[in-house]
Amino acid sequence: MYKLELISRWNEVKEKLKRRYAMLTDEDLMFRLGREGELIIRLQRKLGKSRADVMRMIGEVN
């Protein structure tokens, strides 16, 4: 998924991730432009997955 597309559809992607991974909170999925790395790190820690796994997971819910 292209970064610009992800930004424009983040609320939809966030809701799909919350349905798939019930343990994720709004705080875990907080997206700030220019600070995307923090989001990835939060998800890695919460889910115990690698960066590549988290990126793939986000792409799959598109």
What separation lies between the terminal Cα atoms? 8 Å
> Mean pLDDT, as a whole number?
89
The name of the CATH topology is Protein Yjbj, Chain: A
Which structural class is indicated by helix and strand composition?
mainly alpha
Q: What is the count of structural domains? A: 1
Number of strands: 0
Work out the helix count. 4
Largest sheet: none
- The helix content, as a percent range, equals 55-70%
Low-confidence stretches: none
CATH class: Mainly Alpha
Q: What is the CATH architecture descriptor?
A: Orthogonal Bundle
What string gives the helices and strands in order?
HHHH
Estimate the global geometry from the Cα principal axes: globular
Radius of gyration from the CA trace? 10 Å
Strand content: under 5%
Describe the structure.
- 63% of the residues lie in helices and 0% in strands.
- The protein is an all-alpha fold and 62 residues long.
- It has a single domain, classed as Protein Yjbj, Chain: A (Orthogonal Bundle), CATH 1.10.1470.
- Helix 3 (36-47) crosses helix 4 (51-60).
- The radius of gyration is 10 Å and the shape is globular.
- The mean pLDDT is 89.
